[in-house]
Structure formats: structure tokens, C-alpha cells
Write a structure and sequence with these properties.
Blueprint: H1 2-14, H2 16-19, H3 27-41, H4 47-55, H5 66-98, H6 111-127, E1 132-134, E2 137-139, H7 142-151, H8 167-172, H9 183-195, H10 201-210, H11 232-235, H12 244-266, H13 271-306, H14 309-331, H15 345-367, H16 374-386, H17 391-422
Antiparallel strand pairs: 1-2
Helix pairs in contact: 7-15, 12-13, 13-14, 13-15, 14-15, 14-16
Keywords: Coiled coil
């Protein structure tokens, strides 16, 4: 009997899944189905009868034998599961009835629309993960700059003037005619640089250029966007030699040569660092050449359109002032120093990252020819708004034109009378 139970009970337990296939059957039908399957597995013999005779089962199914007790336990579990199943169905029906109506699905977007959305999402994802590539190195933030300064060179105070060279600092260091320093001015400058924690003049000049948006050779007093070149004649005397344009360009060449030589001397054992920083310096020279060319060419275009010398020159100057203002928003990060008397590695890394972003921003300005860049559109709109023709001015011009027409009519009438008298 024990061997029979060992062979049959696993089969009975295996049939539980078949027993649950149709939840609409009554409990009696399920038990009958179970008995049928048990009989079929016992080679045609009445297994329940055998169990009844061995384990003493009465007509009502009261189990006295051990094997039949296990069968009754299975039946009891089936009853409980059936009750739970009915309760679950009622709960599902109630939730379905209480559920809010689902909105209709909109038609699937077109492939072109999906592509545009993907591009916009990619742009937003990369917005806070800006990458700047210089001389084969990719920088993604202050941490990358700190790693570069730690691994590609030996950071110390002597090299603290290397990390912030851009077009603003290059132009700011140019000495124009009439702006030369006296010996006392040079000594005072060196003294201030030492007190501020700078070990070399290059780093001090770089730091001072961060404090103002407009470079010294173009700055000054007045309402003009670039006071030092308030007229086109001050910018270019059109003889190929004189004018602030040529003075600054010659000064930029000198600053670039001086800075690159200083970089090579300071970082001679570190060729990769030399490559990166000299690339930034040479790019700064190209950025100035692009600014200089834009000022001259855009003035010529405006002259053809308006034939107004003052307005034709003010507009390109306002755009370039906008360039310096936008660069200053990025460069101002350089001014955040951890310690006043010492330039730390974190300060240098932050300064380097700000300069890299400035270079990338300048490249985007140049690629879009300045006026096509979204960051500079506001300066163009501001200029157009200030120089717009208002309805009041238009009415005044109409009144003046009407007065002029009346005077011309009167003059022609008088002239005709004189001709008649002479005839």
C-alpha cells in the first residue's frame, strides 16, 4: 500500500494544474474529473475503491486511511482556492466598472516627427554634458581639466598663467599707441600681482582681464558700444597701416608669440600640454582676425543698405560688444578662486574649463557669421528697435512732405505768372 501511494500521489498532485483549467466547473465535477484521471492512471482499476477498502472510507467520503486523508486535504485546498477565485473575479469586475474611461490613442506620429523629437532630446541630453575637443583631447568638464593638469603636466604656481588664454585675454594684453606703461607703472603692477598670490605677470594679466567684459584697447568712456573706436576712421584709416585695427592686430601677433614661447619654456618636458595650450593661443589669434574682418565687412554692407555712416558703423560694433558680453558670462567663472593668496589646482581646472568653453563659443559665433547665432540675435534686435521708424516720426515726415509739396505748388504758380508777364 505504501508503494502504491508513493506512485499514485505524485500523479494526483501533478493533475492539479489540469484540474484548474476550467474555473466554471462545479466542485463535484472537478472531483469526478479527478477520479476519472486517477482511474485512467491506475490501468483501469478503481483506485478509489481500493483506497476505500484499505483505508476504510464510508459513502460520504470521510477519510480514515492515511492516503485518503491526503486526498481530502487536496479537495479542501481546491474549495478554498475556488472561493478565493470567485472573490477575485468579483473584485476585478468592480474595479473594471469603477475605472475611468481611457482616452483614445492619437495616431502614430510620422517618422520625420519622431526623428526631430529624437534630435531635440539628444540636444537636451548633451546640453549639460558639453564636450570640447582641442588638439585631439576631449574635455567634458572641470574634472577632466583637473585630470589633464595632474597627468599631462606638473601643476605649480609657475604655470598658473597657462590655463586661461583666449581672444579676450590676448587682446586685453595689447599695448596700443599712447597706452605704454611707465617704469613706475610696471613696478606697481608687479607688486600688486605678488600681493594677489600670482608668481608671474602672465597669470596676473590673465586674471585682471577676467574682471571686465570689453578688452582695454577697445574700452573707454562714452555711449558707443566700443568707445575706443567710436568712428570708423579710428578703427581703419583705409591706408592699410593706420588705425586701431592694425595696432591691435600687430599687438596680438606679439602677444601670441610671447605666450607660445613662454608655454614652451614652462612645459618643455610635457609635449601634450604644450600642444593643447599653444593650440588655444593660436586659435585666439584666429578669433581676433574673424572679429576684425566682421567689423570692416559688416560696416560696408550696412553702408550699401542705409547710406548712413554713423548707423552703418554702430551696428557691427554692437554685435561685437555682444560677443564680448557673452564670452564674459563664461569667463567670469575664472574669477572664483578658492584662496586669495594662492591659485589651487581646482582654481586652475575651473579656469581651464571656462577658457575651453569660450573657445567653443567663439567657434560657433564664427561658423554662424556672428549675426546668425541665437545668443547674438538680441543685440541685433535691440539695435533695430532703437533705430526704428516710429509712427510719430512717420507722421512728422508726412507733414513735412505735404508742406514741401504746397510750397512747390505755390512756387510753380508764381513762376508761371512771371513767364506770362514776360511774354
Amino acid at each position: 500500500m505504501a508503494s502504491l501511494c508513493e506512485n499514485v500521489l505524485p500523479d494526483i498532485l501533478e493533475m492539479k494544474e489540469d484540474y484548474y483549467e476550467d474555473p466554471r466547473k462545479t466542485l463535484g465535477q472537478r472531483v469526478q474529473s479527478l477520479e476519472t484521471q486517477v482511474n485512467s492512471r491506475s490501468a483501469g482499476t478503481n483506485l478509489l475503491s481500493s483506497l476505500s477498502s484499505t483505508g476504510s472510507v464510508d459513502r460520504r467520503g470521510l477519510a480514515i486511511g492515511g492516503s485518503v486523508n491526503q486526498l481530502d486535504a487536496v479537495v479542501a485546498r481546491l474549495e478554498r482556492l475556488e472561493m478565493a477565485n470567485a472573490s477575485l473575479r468579483e473584485e476585478v469586475a468592480r474595479l473594471t466598472a469603477d475605472a475611468a474611461p481611457q482616452p483614445e490613442l492619437s495616431p502614430a506620429p510620422s517618422t520625420a516627427m519622431l526623428q526631430q523629437l529624437k534630435e531635440r532630446v539628444s540636444h537636451l541630453e548633451q546640453k549639460d554634458n558639453e564636450k570640447v575637443n582641442v588638439a585631439g583631447f576631449a574635455f567634458g568638464g572641470v574634472a577632466d581639466c583637473r585630470h589633464f593638469l595632474n597627468t599631462k603636466m606638473v601643476f605649480d604656481s609657475e604655470s598658473s598663467g597657462l590655463f586661461g588664454t583666449d581672444v579676450v585675454s590676448i587682446v586685453d594684453g595689447v599695448t596700443t599707441e599712447g597706452g605704454e606703461l611707465l617704469p613706475t607703472d610696471v613696478l606697481r603692477r608687479d607688486e600688486y600681482a605678488t600681493k594677489a598670490g600670482f608668481d608671474n605677470i602672465m597669470a596676473a594679466k590673465l586674471y585682471s582681464s577676467i574682471q571686465r567684459p570689453i578688452p582695454i584697447p577697445l574700452a573707454g568712456k562714452g555711449n558707443h558700444p566700443l568707445p575706443a573706436i567710436s568712428t570708423f576712421a579710428k578703427w581703419d584709416e583705409q591706408d592699410g597701416m593706420r588705425g586701431l585695427r592694425y595696432e591691435i592686430t600687430r599687438g596680438v601677433d606679439h602677444e601670441v608669440n610671447q605666450t607660445t614661447e613662454w608655454i614652451r619654456a614652462q612645459l618643455k618636458p610635457h609635449p601634450e600640454a604644450v600642444l593643447v595650450f599653444t593650440t588655444l593661443v593660436l586659435d585666439s589669434k584666429q578669433h581676433w582676425m574673424a572679429i576684425s574682418t566682421f567689423l570692416t565687412n559688416q560696416r560696408g554692407i550696412c553702408m550699401q543698405q542705409s547710406d548712413d555712416e554713423a548707423e552703418a558703423w554702430v551696428y557691427p560694433c554692437e554685435v561685437i560688444k555682444g560677443v564680448f558680453m557673452e564670452l564674459h558670462r563664461v569667463r567670469s567663472v575664472d574669477a572664483m578662486r578658492s584662496k586669495l593668496g594662492q591659485l589651487t589646482l581646482d582654481d586652475a581646472a575651473r579656469m581651464m574649463w571656462a577658457v575651453l568653453r569660450c573657445h567653443q563659443l567663439m567657434n560657433s559665433f564664427i561658423d554662424l557669421k556672428f549675426t546668425g547665432h541665437p545668443k547674438l540675435s538680441g543685440y541685433s534686435l535691440s539695435h533695430l528697435f532703437r533705430h526704428r521708424l516710429t509712427p510719430k516720426n512717420l507722421d512728422s515726415m508726412k507733414a513735412q512732405l505735404s508742406q514741401f509739396q504746397r510750397e512747390m505748388t505755390t512756387f510753380n504758380a508764381k513762376l508761371a505768372k512771371k513767364k506770362d508777364r514776360g511774354a
